[in-house]
Amino acid sequence: MTKNVLDRSQSDSGRIRLCVVGGQGRLGKIVVRIAIEHGCEVVATVNRNDSDPLPEGHEPFDVVVDVSSLEGVHRSVAIAKAHEVPLLECVTGLDEPAKTALIAAESDIPVLHAPNTSMGVAILRVALRSIGLLTDSWAVTISETHHEKKIDRPSGTARRLVDDLRMSRGDIGDEDVVSRRVGEVVGEHEVTFVRDDEIIKFKHQALDRGVFAHGVLRAAVWLAKGRPPGRYSIEDTLADLPGITD
Description:
Number of strands: 10
Order of helices and strands: EHEEHEHEHEHEEEHE
Structural class: alpha/beta
Strand order of the largest sheet: 2-1-3-4-5-10
CATH superfamily of the largest domain: NAD(P)-binding Rossmann-like Domain
CATH class of the largest domain: Alpha Beta
């Protein structure tokens, strides 16, 4: 039986305790700084050059949050499985070994893979799954823009948008995504449908990296609520929003 926050003793403060892999990265630093705003407490951080990431006698934690890089995925999976806690995996551009590791882990622990933790993107994905069926005769294009240091092209989010559209139409793939890497752009995604004299556009623009950090912490809190082993997505967390029912 997977142990998580519901059958563990929480910290004296009652906060959900996090182990953050990549805590010194661009996103990780924000997660660590604002964790308390979401009722969380970062009790351990694991970074790229740590030879002994979790020394003996470390404080227990309730969720492993991975905001590192592809190299950190296997370490995050190993830590979460060893401690029998949920894993929130936020790394994008996973290769086949990383995907296989997550699939293997989800039989033992809750695994939420979220290349993009923005609530706005989650809502956009839900909308695209509905509109795709109604626009199968429309031409569709997807464009995404990120900062110049982002490696994966298309972005993990753009690939997810493609997957959402392909649920109802099979005429779109990664090759139909226009990717741009410019300066310090946080993240922009636009989906355009064209037919005759009509155009429908959906656009999401992240104005600050804090959007993703708040999403990370909201998802970590959701994961800690006694979820059974299995695979989850950021869209699953929307069920807890006011006015949303299963």
